[in-house]
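Closing statement on the zinc ion sub-project.
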Amino acid sequence: MDLKRKILGVAMAAAMFVPAAAFAHDWGVHHHSASCTHGPMPAARPGGHYEVRTVQTWVDGRWVQDYVPERCVTRHKGRHGRRTVTSCTPAHYMKRWVDGHYENREEWVFVPDPVPSRAYPTGQVTVNGPYWQATARW
Ligand SMILES: [Zn+2]
């Protein structure tokens, strides 16, 4: 395969990804730490390398059930407060609405290697994922 067709192939592959929406991106260089939430790096494959991208994904608003444990209140009654009455509210679940919000998620993104040549001394390949973008320049 000659270089022109190879680049065209990459461009076609990139065009097949349709950005789902205008999501915010973090193009910063990844500094690996214990707080990372991404999985292990995918198996290496030729023609590029993997980089971690932080992507923001929209989480729809939803109802959640909170567990409320049993609660007992003891009151003193009677003329001298000697009699006690205990009333308990049994354990139950309470519905709570959580608004839709953005959550950060870390993803491994395949970044194609630069493809330098005499015919194409400079150029770039951009791959658009659903929530991310990877660009290789040479
Ligand atoms: Zn990391």
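The two ends are 20 Å apart (CA to CA). With this model delivered, the sub-project is considered complete and its resources will be redirected to Aim 3.
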